[in-house]
Each structure stands twice: as structure tokens, then as C-alpha cells.
Amino acid sequence: MSTRMSISLFSMFLSFAVSFNALAEVSEDLLEQAEKSIAEGVEYLLAQQADNGAWGREPAITALAMQALYQNQMEEFEGEIDQALEKGREFILEHQQPSGAFFGVAGEYPNYTTSMALVALDMLDRPEDEEAMRQARNFLQELQLREEHDEHPREPDSPFYGGIGYGSGGATVPDLSNPQFALEALYLTDHLDRDTAEAEESRATWRRAEIYLRSVQHIPEDADDDWQPDPDSVIDGGFVYRPDQCRIREATTDEFEGEPISYGATTVGGLKSLLYAGVERDDPRVRAAVNWLKQNYTLDENPVIGPEAHYYYLWTFAKAMRAYGRGTLELADGEERDWREDLMNKLIELQRQDGSWINEEAARYMESVPELTTSYSLIGMRVALSDASAQ
To answer: What is the pLDDT of residues 5-23, one digit of tens each?
Structure first.
């Protein structure tokens, strides 16, 4: 393993455990159950890889499955995981374009696919893949809307300035899901541009991203250390899908005069992105997002939305909480919850007998694809387990 792994995805998830203060006790029984659950999930995922190295027929799902396996290397699967990772690597590299982007099989979702592929390749840390990764980073940075964007220039007063869209077709208006994928990939591969001519552009990317994150968070422009969110209004500190769009099928925004509503997956995605951008934990923006989670805390569903994107929420929640660096949350009613214990219990409860996970209540966002939801779950479980085990 390379010494550079301290800045890789694996290290981000596993090396910061000592930063937690006053970690709550997690029972040995639960830790054992979690390890057993992970082993069953890994066995399932290994069995689903196609002969061409793919999972779910798509390079994005393949790259996510690779991340899940890499983070959950276990003695009983020694050798199998290495072989699976190499086959997956070859499959995703076949889908890189001259632009540096990685396309799906049908040429769809280049931002999502490129972000996932970049993280997977960075984990493997092969010197021969460095140029492919640099090109992928450049593609993601070029997608960001800004003054000098080739096709869709935006000025800083635009609510979409600093955002990143799908990267294909007419879908150029950024939501929060696309940028949070791209920003995580850029954050984890920052070492590729550090001390190079591209370093200043990378810093500019993050400055612009902060501006966009402000436009999708329900927080006043002049919020200071004394500002408190109002849970009875739309200015609640949470994050929305897009400045102009709610993205909730059943929910109504009438009581807030048409304003988009904050919900779980966007709020944890926004929180994670703020922290990756270097925003301090005591900044009003971070405190507001965490306060929203305390007010709406649940792992039974995607808060506010319900069952849609439940696994996406759990996966992003785990990474946001890891970045936040606290093992417990004091909820609005004063109850203290250990999110790691809650997450492990929830994922153990949801796991199917064959070792997989699937969203049986809402298939939207591809959560009926077990390769996808199982990968989400294995990553989330490992984040929670590694923190709890290190207390």
C-alpha cells in the first residue's frame, strides 16, 4: 500500500477515528454483528461481478462496488477482492473518453460516472492511472459554472454560480447531488494538483463551490455566530436540492410560499461538502446544517422525503458524520444518540438473507439495483464500524 494512502478514501474513512471525544460505548455484540453483516454483503457483491468486470452493467456502479470492497477487505476473502478490483479497474478504464470524462454504457451521467471512477482509481493508487485521473479531475473542474465557462457562463450573482451539473445534454443547471459527488472526488484527489501549476485553479474551484453551497442552504447571507435557525420557517439551516426546485414528489411547499424544502439527503450532502471545502465546524453554516439534522434525526427514512433515496441518504449521512468528527448528536429534545450504533443497527435490520440490501419501498434513483444499494450499505457500515471500534 502506498504511503500516499493517508489522503485516499480509505484513509479518510479509517484514520481519523481518534479525533472523537467522549465516544459512547458500543457493545462488542453489535460490533460482531456488524462484521458478520459486512462479510455477508461482501460475499454477495463478489458473486455479482460480471465476467467483463462490471457490477450493474455500469462503470459508475462498478466504481462504487470497488470502493465498498476495497474498504472491506477481510481475511476470508483474501485474493478474491484483489482480483475483483483489478477486473473492475479494467472495465471502468475502458469507458474513459478523450475529454477525461468517464461515460456510462449509454453515454449518460458523465459527472456521476467520472466522480465515482476517479475515487475508485485513486484508491487503487496505480502509477499508470495517474494521467487518467488528472484528466478526470480536469473534466470535473471544467464542468463548474463560472464566468469563463465555455458553454454556460455564470456570474457570481447567479444562484447557480459554482455549481456542477450532469455534464451532458441540456442538463446544465446544477442540483446539489451532482456537485457533492464531484467535490468529494476532487477532495480525495487533491494531492494530484498540490504543488503543481493547477493548484490555484483547484483552490478557485473550492471558493466557487462555497458560493454555490450558500445558494442551496436555507441560511441568511448575514448569518453570524449568534444566528439561530427557525424550525417553523423555511429558513431552517438545511439544504435543498436546487435553488429553484424542491425535488420532493409528495411534499407541498405551500406553507413556505413555494420555497424549496430542506431534506435529509441534501442536508448531509451539503454538510459534507462544506467540511471538505475547509469550512470550520463552528462556522454558522455547519452549525445550522447539524442543527437541522438534530431537529429531523432519523435513519428509518430519508428525512422529510420518506423512503425515496433512503440508502443514498444513509451512505452520505455516514460520510458527513465522519467528516464532522463527532460520535454522538444531542437531539432537539436533549436525547443523545450515537449515530454509529444507530446506523449499524439500521443496516443490520435492513439486510436481506442473501447478504444484499435493496430499497423495497421506493425504486427511484436506482435503489432497486442491489449492486448499488449493497455498495452504499457496505461503505456506510464500515464507516460506522471503524469509528466505533476505535474508541
So the answer is: 333 444 444 433 333 333 3
Rg (CA), the chain: 20
pTM of the model: 0.89
Count of domains for the chain: 1
- Tell me the CATH number at 91: 1.50.10.20
Which residues, 6+ apart, have CB-to-CB distance to 15 below 8 Å?
6
Angstrom distance (rounded) from CA 25 to CA 66 = 31
State the Cα–Cα distance between residues 247 and 226, nearest whole angstrom. 31
Q: Are 55 and 48 in contact (CB under 8 A)?
A: yes
Domain that holds residue 295: 3-389
Contacts of 232 by beta carbon, 8 Å cutoff, 6+ apart: none
Q: Is the pLDDT reported for residue 129 higher than 80?
A: yes
Q: How far apart are CA 15 and CA 21, in angstroms?
A: 15
The strand pairing partners of 302, in sequence order, are 306
The burial class, CB within 10 Å (0-12 / 13-18 / 19+), for 334 is: exposed
